[in-house]
Amino acid sequence: MSHRILAILCTTLLLAAGATAGPKLLENIPLVWKPTDTLGALGPLNLSGPAISTALHVDLLVDTRNNPSLVAENHENSDRVLPVTTSGDVAAFVTDHVKEQLHIGGLNIVDGPADMTLSGEIRQYFVTETSTYHSELSLVLHLKDAQGKEVWSGAAAGAADRFGRSYKAENYYETLSDALLRAAHNLLANPAFTDAFQSR
Known about the structure:
32% helix, nine-stranded mixed β-sheet, alpha/beta
């Protein structure tokens, strides 16, 4: 067999192996903030009085999910689920961007001593890809006054759907970010949460 034919056969086998191996897995990717909307575009927020004048500290949220590094899965092929894992700190990422969006929405977010403190848990933060990308974020939150008395507790949730090319990091970034943005907006639009600032 000539070297030329052997080379062609080797190339064909390598290409075939690559085709059956599927896409390179999205493992240990960073967390990237890439929303496709803004807080203001999600609807008006009517914050005033104590809700905007009260100094609020946001504690680092606790990630209680079973697998902290797993943030998404591709289920387009029922025979092979493709995972998406991150090397980033999900708790820090979610906390930082919740704080950012609450500040943009009008709350007085501070890093030091405060009149009130918001703490909580991340119960769900995940994207499921089928024909579309679908993300969900679920937080359980607690608002306490300066004496440590709980004045409000409740859930804040957000979800997002979008189309995109199959198994692409950029689409996961967008849907994860949009779910967080909507959760922050839903929290700020919750009158029970904002009314609790009256109790300080």
